[in-house]
Design brief:
Bound molecules: magnesium ion
Shape: globular
Distance between the termini: 30 Å
Structural class: alpha+beta
Largest sheet: 5 strands, antiparallel
Length: 248
């Protein structure tokens, strides 16, 4: 069952979304050569606490930190720690906040110093695929229209879509129905209706879409070692079309 949110629930989700977006922005501003991923996580954690929000990821399934920070060939679920960011790295930050009983969830990949032209393109087009996916999320459309918007856009650049992990409904729980894959067929899947809230999150690799989990049990990396980018917004589907909730 897909939980629909009423007006007052949506306004709470807007608050949770705004705080999540602010935490992501602050984390992104901290990305530079020389900082550790652990330091970025602490900045994010401190900010969420200052807003009386609960970090969604802290303790989720046993995750030990407030943000997932994934560098270069790491796709998602990177555990912040002593790793020092180098000039030319790309750094994916994924952060969620619980506020007023509802979750916000968002992610972005940030450049550290000067990155390669090809990395720049991966970031730009992954971000663009998210915007195209959001545009497809109107009432009456289907989940497959969102999926196809991502897949059809990024594959023209030869990028690989990660299939093992997908976007999701979100609300009182971080992960609700439906699943929102970044691959699929237009016109297929659950029909979208006003009041649905979704986390749309393309995970796109410069090479193939295959991924594996490292021995730490968390960090997901590309199997071929290629770079990976991740952009995510929480959105609401309204009568007037999609509305981004994770906005500062
Ligand atoms: Mg998510």
């Amino acid at each position: 069952m897909i939980a629909l949110k009423n007006k007052s629930e949506l306004s709470k989700m807007r608050d949770a979304g705004r705080i999540s977006a602010e935490a992501l922005k602050i984390g992104g501003e901290a990305v530079k050569p020389g900082i550790t991923t652990g330091e970025i996580d602490r900045i994010i954690h401190k900010y969420l606490k200052s807003q009386n929000a609960i970090p969604s990821f802290l303790g989720y399934g046993g995750f030990p930190k407030s943000a997932c920070i994934s560098v270069n060939n790491e796709v998602i679920h990177g555990v912040p720690g002593r790793r020092v960011i180098q000039d030319g790295d790309i750094v994916s930050i994924d952060v969620g906040a619980i506020y007023g009983g509802f979750h916000g969830d968002n992610a972005a990949t940030f450049p550290a110093g000067k990155i390669s032209k090809s990395a720049e393109m991966l970031l730009k087009e992954t971000m663009e695929s998210l915007l195209k996916a959001i545009k497809a999320a109107s009432p009456g459309a289907r989940v497959g229209d969102i999926s196809w918007a991502v897949q059809s856009y990024v594959e023209q650049f030869g990028f690989g879509v990660v299939r093992k992990y997908v976007g999701h409904g979100i609300g009182r729980e971080m992960h609700e129905s439906p699943e929102v894959p970044n691959f699929g067929s237009p016109g297929k899947g659950p029909r979208l209706a006003a009041g649905m809230t979704l986390a749309i999150e393309p995970m796109i690799n410069e090479g193939g879409g295959d991924v594996k989990v490292l021995q730490d049990g968390w960090t997901v990396v590309t199997t071929d070692g290629s770079l990976s980018a991740h952009f995510e917004n929480t959105i609401a589907i309204t009568e007037n079309g999609p509305l981004i909730l994770t906005e500062v």
